[in-house]
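Q: Sequence in, structure out?
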Amino acid sequence: MDSGGINGNHGSKDTMPSADGMDMNMHHGKEMLMHMTFFWGKNTEVVFSGWPGTSLGMYLLSLIVVFVISVLLEWISTCNLIKPGTPRLAAGLMQTLMHTLRMGLAYLVMLALMSFNGGIFIVAVAGHSVGFLIFGSRMFKPENETPVADLPPMKC
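A: Exactly. Output:
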């Protein structure tokens, strides 16, 4: 018995079957595939539709951007910008601004990871590792310094 095309739609090119039997829309005559497992390759979309595209240079740029954001996230989590004696209102507003920035960047990295691209995953973890090594570990701090950050640690 002939099903008559993709998912029984008699040759319709507007839909394609997904793994759960539901139809996924096609975009401009091209299949829109969303990976649900890790994959390797430069042809991916990271956070924004169409970015980084299909060129190797833009993929490498997306890797660098995710790495830098991850390092910056670690810096924000461990920085000490509020000086002692700062008025409570100003200190509270600064903490709130820093927390907002930290959460925004954390969600941005999380969205990049949802591309399920292996390279993006590796550079995100590497960025967090390098950022913690530089800003959070004892490696670059004087031995007698007690680390005090403006923001409390992020909790799972």
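The chain has two domains: 1-33, 35-156.
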